[in-house]
Write a structure and sequence with these properties.
Among the domains are: 79 residues, no CATH class; 217 residues, Hypothetical protein af1432, CATH 1.10.3210.10. The longest helix is centred in the first third of the chain and has 29 residues. It is built from 32 helices and no strands.
């Protein structure tokens, strides 16, 4: 690789370790000091990385048709280090490079290269799309399907003309990966479309006449992965809308995987992998071979078996994924008395989940942990004496992304202070909050309103759980399509909060804090406050978000840190357009700016201490 490429990869590694180091200090004061140091290093890494790419990479990508063979080889090698099967250092840049290489192959009419680049572009989009999972919002499925489908189409048109085994391999990979463009199956039409794709792929991969044409390809690996993908239709089986033919196909794949796992376990003297053991058990449950009670018992036993393993694939799955699966399937028990028998297990599994989150190892990008964290959050159920959903949310950020925890903690206190001032200055603007109907009632309910706004400000940005790695680790400026993806944190956050009675009233703050006060910009464009109380809450939180960005440790390449004076100037300039005039006016009274600036510095230290204690409490 070239020197700038090696340096950029080094910056990525440094940024990843900065966001989620392998170990945090044992005492809170050192914890705080190192956080400030990490924030400064991260800002410098983004500045340096952006300069490297602007000077060395982007001009070549913009003029890709002038690239030499050596340039192409070096680009492919560099991209390979940005994303692999096990690491996702910078998926956005990986996609940008392969998009340029795809254009090069198409313009130069390089068929084999074109097939490969179609596959690699599809995989890049798949990895970007995975950040949205398990939310049903999708940005890239149609484009991903086009890439994979075009690559796979060469099986019908030019397969026998292609002599390179690797190229034929990309065709088969693409054929099976069309199924990836049907994620989170929830309706029969989509499920059957995915089944048809996989049925065709499995049929071709099993055909001896096809295998004979290229015996060097890893046919059994391809076939195994297609069966693995078909087991993801368990989510559709859970919906109760699947017909017997769907059950049969999913069960066939679950049995195929189980038999292979059993064989490998015997050959290697190792136990079955829990992930695929689960798939087999789930298929048996859905087909009526075992009861829901037996199935849940098997899941719990599986988690108990690996409770002391943190680094193995089995330990990761049982600590992080099994709790979410257990809670999801617990919903199949409709009798409340029967459900209550499992609440102790839910609490134990949740405790194990958070113990891993705070004590377990981090992969280089932290994306695996965050994927499981999202799965856990979207399936979480509150049980008596268990962890409240609000604490579950805070625990995830405290364990895996302290900058977001800090930002939300400070924003909550800032919003609370703004609400108290608003009660004093313009109570009529807050009518509706906490059931008030007049300005007089607002004044009487000052403490209750301030407490509610504190919660709204503390949880307004929980949707960033989908994008903490994209936001924090890439050492460069943000691409336009990445910004569109990250902007979805507003919608994702609102959907998370709406799942629980204890947080659903806060959803509007998550959905609307980037929407302009005058309704003429911002996002999401379809945001409409339900009433004045929601509007007032969103207005206060939007300004709190701005002021929280004055803390260096909350910054990222997506939201650079600014000074308190700069934030106040932005607020003044945006009053009446981006921000509500009544909130902007709160800081016009003498002494308030100085008071709030000092308070934010105090809150920063308090937030770190709170985070530190929360992390310690999560450890078993």
């Amino acid at each position: 690789m070239l020197a700038y490429q090696t340096e950029y990869l080094g910056l990525l590694k440094s940024a990843s370790e900065s966001v989620n180091p392998s170990a945090y200090p044992e005492d809170p004061m050192t914890f705080i000091e190192e956080a400030d140091d990490r924030a400064k290093k991260s800002a410098l890494a983004v500045e340096r990385g952006t300069a490297l790419l602007k000077r060395n990479l982007f001009p070549l990508l913009d003029n890709i048709l002038s690239a030499t063979d050596e340039d192409i080889d070096l680009l492919e090698e560099f991209a390979g280090n940005l994303m692999s099967m096990t690491e996702q250092s910078d998926v956005g840049l990986y996609y940008r490079i392969h998009l340029a290489l795809l254009s090069y192959a198409r313009q130069k009419k390089l068929r084999d290269m074109l097939i490969k680049e179609l596959y690699l572009c599809g995989m890049a989009l798949h990895n970007l799309e995975t950040m949205l999972s398990p939310n049903n919002i999708r940005l890239y499925t149609a484009r991903m399907r086009l890439y994979f489908s075009e690559s796979a189409s060469y099986f019908e048109t030019k397969y026998d003309d292609i002599t390179d085994p690797e190229t034929r391999g990309y065709i088969h990979r693409s054929m099976g990966n069309i199924a990836l463009s049907y994620p989170n199956i929830s309706d029969e039409k989509t499920a059957r479309a995915k089944l048809e794709v996989l049925k065709r792929s499995i049929g071709i991969l099993s055909d001896p006449s096809v295998r004979e044409k290229t015996p060097s390809l890893p046919w059994d690996v391809f076939l195994y992965k297609s069966h693995q993908e078909r087991t993801t239709l368990m989510s559709f089986l859970r919906s109760g809308n699947a017909g017997p033919d769907v059950f049969a196909q999913v069960l066939e794949s679950a049995l195929f995987i189980e038999e292979r796992q059993q064989r490998e376990a015997r050959e290697k003297g190792k136990p079955l992998q829990p992930r695929w053991q689960y798939a087999y058990l789930a298929a048996r449950y859905h087909c009526g071979a075992i009861s829901i009670e037996d199935f849940l018992g098997d899941l719990y036993s599986m988690a108990s078996q690996y409770k002391d393993e943190y680094e193995t694939a089995s330990g990761v799955f049982t600590h992080l994924s099994v709790p979410a699966l257990y809670m999801t399937y617990l919903g199949h028990i409709t009798d409340e008395a029967e459900r209550e028998k499992h609440y102790g297990n839910v609490k134990t599994l949740a405790d194990g989940f958070f113990d891993w989150m705070v004590s377990g190892p981090s992969d280089s990008s932290n994306e695996k942990a965050m994927f499981f964290a999202r799965q856990f959050l979207y399936s979480y159920i509150e049980v008596p004496d268990g962890i409240r959903f609000s604490d579950v949310l805070l625990n995830v950020f405290a364990a895996r992304h302290p900058p977001s925890y800090l930002r939300m903690w400070i924003a909550g206190r800032t919003a609370e202070q703004l609400a108290k001032w608003a009660v004093e200055d313009c109570p009529e603007k807050l009518t509706g909050l906490e059931g008030t109907t007049t300005a007089e009632e607002v004044v009487k309910s000052k403490d209750g309103i301030a407490s509610f706004i504190l919660k709204a400000g503390t949880f307004y940005d929980v949707g960033t759980v989908h994008f903490v790695n994209m936001e924090a680790t890439a050492c460069r400026g943000i691409f336009e399509d990445e910004e569109a993806l990250i902007n979805l944190h507003t919608v994702c956050g609102a959907e998370l909060l709406e799942k629980h009675e204890s947080t659903k009233r806060l959803a509007a703050a998550a959905r609307g804090h980037h929407f302009n006060f005058d309704g003429k910009g911002g996002y999401p464009m379809d945001f409409t406050p339900a009433d004045n109380s929601e509007r007032a809450m969103v207005c206060l939180v939007a300004v709190a978000d701005l002021l929280a960005s004055t803390v260096n440790e909350t910054a990222s390449r997506y939201r650079p840190a600014i000074s308190f004076e700069q934030a106040c100037k932005i607020l003044e300039d945006g009053s009446g357009t981006r921000y509500a005039p009544f909130v902007a006016g709160l800081l016009q009274k003498p002494g308030r700016r100085e008071q709030l600036s000092e308070s934010i510095n105090i809150w920063k230290r308090m937030a770190y201490l709170d985070m530190y204690r929360r992390r310690e409490k999560m450890k078993l």
